[in-house]
Amino acid sequence: MLSTTGLVALTFFSVTGGPFGQELVVKAAGPLFAILGYLGFSLAWSVPEALMTAELSSAFPEAAGFAAWTNAAFGPLAAWIDAWCSWVSGVVDNALYPILLLKYLEQVTDVFSGDDSSALVARWTFTLGFVAVLTYLCHRGLDLTGRSAIALSYFVLAPFAVFCVVAAPRVRPARWFRVRADHHGTIRLRPWINNLFWNVNYYDSASAWAAEVDKDKWGSAMAASVALCTCASILPMLAATGASDRTYHDYHNGAYVDVARDLAGPWLARWIVVSAAVANVGLFVSEMSSDAYQLMGMAERGLLPAALAKKSPTRGTPTSAILLSACGVLALHSLTFEAIIATENLLYVCSMLLELAAFVQLRRKSPEFSRFSPRALLIFCLPASVLLLLVAAVQPPLVWMVAGALFLLGLLVYAVIGRTRRSNACGLHYKDLHEDWTAPRGTLASLCGWDDRFPSDARRADTTTDPLHSSSSSSAAAAAAAASREPLVRDLSTALV
Length: 497
Prior knowledge:
- Its main location: membrane.
- It is found in: Cell membrane.
- Keywords: Cell membrane, Membrane, Transmembrane, Transmembrane helix, Transport.
- This protein is an all-alpha fold.
- The chain folds into 2 domains: 4-419 and 485-489, Up-down Bundle (Amino acid/polyamine transporter I), CATH 1.20.1740; 420-483, no CATH class.
- It is built from 18 helices and no strands.
- It has helices spanning 4-15, 23-59, 66-74, 76-94, 96-105, 117-140, 146-167, 189-200, 218-243, 255-264, 266-300, 319-332, 337-365, 374-393, 397-420, 444-447, 456-461, 475-483.
């Protein structure tokens, strides 16, 4: 079983992994609204998301996590949309980490700086090497368990603890009240909201360990996770903005390295760069492992081609699923940091609206699962829902077009697979559809061909019979499928999270 401390450490790396990338919040709004923004977003979003995760992970102690919630509330089509948006946003998120690490490396070397051809080649080479090496490590089965996550958390946060101690004597609280004031106004709303939201979400990822955590630990673990993630963001920001004369103009990804150099010298600056490198490696591999095992789990449940469920004979890792996730990262890595965050946030909003709706629906269907009264449930969900709609509202039309196209692509993939999985079109083979993902007759999902389990023994027995009306209700097939049930997301305590 996973300890409370281990769950907190793993959640920390799912949510933030350290105060990296938050400098753009200061740039967008100045110290005052950056600090207030973190506190406000943590209260309006992080707390409700963490409480929802604790509540539903206790009620659904399985590694399928949030997909199990939406499936229980609304059925397989909603669960597919949730899983699809989560996987795509995860791939988009992973494209950020090479870019973010490059920004920190640029603070200690000029190799990657500039717009000349040599710098461009260096950045491309670094990104390709970063993705290739870490994809290989995922294939090799690099692990991050609860204990190693705890150790890594100490390593990543140690230089920032020193940073805060060094900065404390030089802090002037009046500097925290400075605001941005130029032709853009006091706050550049879009980057302020996007970067804040990106830094405080993904607590629902902890549901992947629901099968490995005692029910009674979820409340304290999520409370500690919110406290740790918030402090890991707020304290370095208070130290940097309060102890340095740098204005919001000077803040960019990697700016904490510059502030550390000003306050303590190059040794602390280099230490923070090493911390950033380790954190970004951990975040990248954790996300890629999560994405790959999600694909593998969906393939094992008959939702995706069986090739994605194939494991390496020597390492036991889903090679095809890992490679597919890596290809998605490489396809997106040339986008800007801001464009990636905006696209990821909009996809995540779609996923989280479904999960909040599932939370309310499950409260109505199974009130014994909830600790909330109807009034408390309204207070709980309303600010979070408003914040999600605000995040969606500030996105530019191009981001809506890209995210909308990806959303529609997910529906198209679901429909095409549903209509073609019986014929093994294009040489693709599928495993038997798990009973939990069978659509009720008369629903949209059933019209797409997902209302039968299509057991392989029935297909072998009579290839001329319409499988839609074949022996999908066979008790032997049902027992076999139930016995072979696999989680949608593999327990990530056995893979790098």
